[in-house]
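Record Taurine ABC transporter substrate-binding protein, 325 aa.
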Amino acid sequence: MKALFPLRLLAALTFGGLALTAQAADFTVAYQTTVDPAKVAQADGEYEKATKAKIDWRKFDSGAEVITAVASGDVQIGYVGSSPLAAAATRQLPVQTFLIATQIGAAEALVARNGTNINTPQDLIGKKIAVPFVSTGHYSLLAALKHWNIDPSKVQILNLAPPAIVAAWQRGDIDATYVWDPALGKAKESGNVLITSGELSKLGAPTFDAWIVRKDFAAKHPEIVNAFAKVTLDAYADYRKDPQAWLADQNNVAKLVKLSGAKAEDIPLLLQGNVFPLAADQVTALGAPTTQAITDTATFLKEQGKVDSVLPDYAPYVSARYVKN
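=>
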C-alpha cells in the first residue's frame, strides 16, 4: 500500500485548475456516511442557500476514495479522516484542512463476530479483520494491535470498503472489522465491540474527521469556503445547545438516517460518541493541535510502511482563516 494514489492522478494535479467547471461557483462535495448534525443542513439545502451555488453531493465509502477524487479535480470539497488526510498531505497534494468535522469517539470501533471465539485481543491472532485501508479505522486498528503487542503480520488484515465489509460479514467470510456506520451498526447486531476509537484516543491514538478543500478552488472562491464552514458550525451549535431537544425532533433524526444509513435508534449514541467542535474551538484546533496530530499520524503510517516519508511541517495543509471569517 505504499502507492496510495495512482501516478496518473498525481499528474492530473498539474492541470487541477482545468478540472473545475466553467461555472466555477458551482462545485462538487464528497461526503461520507458519518452521523453528524450538519447532515440536517445538507438535507435542507442550507449549503446551497449560503454559498449561492449549485452543489453536486457525492457519497463516498472511504477517505482514500475521497482523496483520489479531490486529487483528480473532480471534487473541490471533501470529508476525510485524519489518516487519509495525513497520507495526502505527505504526498503534498494541493489540499487544505479548513474545518474539524468531528473528534471520533464511539462512532468507529473494532467488532468481533459472534461464534469466532474472539473474547480477548490475543484471540485476534490468525483471524481475518476487514477495514478500509488508509482510513481512520485502519489507523485505529493498527494502533490497537500495537497497544496489545500484537504483530499485524500475525492477523489477516483485508482491505474492504464498508459495503463489502457488510456483505463479507453476513457471509461469514471475516472474523472482525474496524469500521463506522452503517456497517458498524450491522456488525454490532451479531458481534462484540473490543475497543472504540474514543478509548484509543485516551490511549494516545486520537482520530478525527475533517473537511478539506482544493487550494486552487479556495483561492478563487474563499467566500464559498467561508459560507460552507459557517453552515456546518451553525448546525453544530444548534445541536450542542440542547442535544436532547435536537434529538426529540424526529425530522432531524430522519434526515440523519437518510444520509448516513444508520438506524434511528442508534443515532443518539453515535452523536454522543463524537465531539463536534464549535467555532471558538475550531480557531484553536486549526493550528498547532491539528498540525501535530497530522504529523503524529504520518509518523505512525511511515512506521507501518503506508507512506515513504514524513514532512518537516504540515502547517501548509491546515488553515483557520475560513472559520475566523
